[in-house]
Amino acid sequence: MTKASRGSQRATGASLPSQVSPPEFALTAVPAHALIGVDVVALPVLPGEDGQPLLGPGSAELGEDLDLDLVALAEAGGLTGAVGESLLVPVPFGAPENADLRAVVLVGVGAQTATDLRRAAATLARTVRDRDAVATTLAALDPDGVEAVVVGLMLGSFAFHWRSGAPEHLPVRRVVLAGLPDDTAALARAVAIGGAAWRARMLATVPSNLKNPEWLAARAEEMVAADPSARLTYRLWDVDQLRAEGFGGIIGVGQGSATPPVMIRVDYEPEKSGKRTPTVVLVGKGITFDSGGLSIKPGPSMVSMKRDMTGGAVVLSTMAALAAMDCPVRVIGLVPAAENAVSGSAMRPGDVLRHYGGRTTEVTNTDAEGRLVLADAMAYAVDQLDPAVLVDVATLTGSVKVALGQQVGGLFANDEALAEHLLAAGLESGEPLWRLPLYAGYEEKIASKVADADNGASGALAILAALFLQHFAADVPWAHLDIASVGDVPDDYYEWTEGPSGFGARILLTWLGSRDPLAGIGS
Question: Which of 3, 311, 494, 522 has the fewest CB within 10 Å, making it most exposed?
Answer without folding.
Answer: 3
